[in-house]
Amino acid sequence: MGIKIYGVQDIKKELPHLDNSQLIELCLRLVRYKKENKELVAYLLFDADNEQAFIESLIAENGFMFSQLPYNNYQFAKGLRKILRLLGKYVKFTGSKQAEIELLMNFCRNYIQYVDRRASSYKPLRLILTRQFDKIRNAIGKLHEDLQFDYSQDFNNMVGEAEEKLKWLNMNDYLL
Question: Total domain count for the chain?
Fold first, then answer.
């Protein structure tokens, strides 16, 4: 015999029956247990109303994290994965495809700027960039046509810059 697990619909039906003090207590209890819950509630309370400023602060933090990465290929790849985990968490908070595209394109630009040419022979580093290109292409495909056009031009320009700097990259594989 186990504990019955309720779905989102059941919880959604029950919440209107609670008064404000019970809702506040419930939210505070939820926030205490997981760091990610606390970060999500903080985002929703303080940053959700100005998403562009939030994205700009993430871009600045992303640039700083790139500048602090070590030169060792293995440690560099590990640091890139850490940055991607953080970006993924914040993209999940925003729930916006545009924010996802902007953050991932900024990540790729920083990658192109900071990666060392001799490090490009390290296959895990190459795979990190190519996976992000694929994610960006898929996300652009889910946008409205006007936004698709704008982002696809930026994306194609970025891929062109990457091909110039990274000799192993074939631009035709990634163009939109």
Answer: 1
Give residue 121's domain range: 51-173
15, part of any domain:
no
DSSP 6: P
* Tokens standing for residue 149: 């056009």
Give, in degrees to the nearest 5, the angle at Cα 90 between 84 and 95: 120
pLDDT in tens, 68-96: 988 888 888 899 999 999 999 999 999 99
Cα–Cα distance between 18 and 11 in angstroms, integer?
A: 11
Tens digits of residue pLDDT in 39-63: 988 898 898 899 999 999 999 999 9
CA angle 159, 77, 65 (to 5 degrees): 80
The Cα 134–Cα 159 span in angstroms is: 12
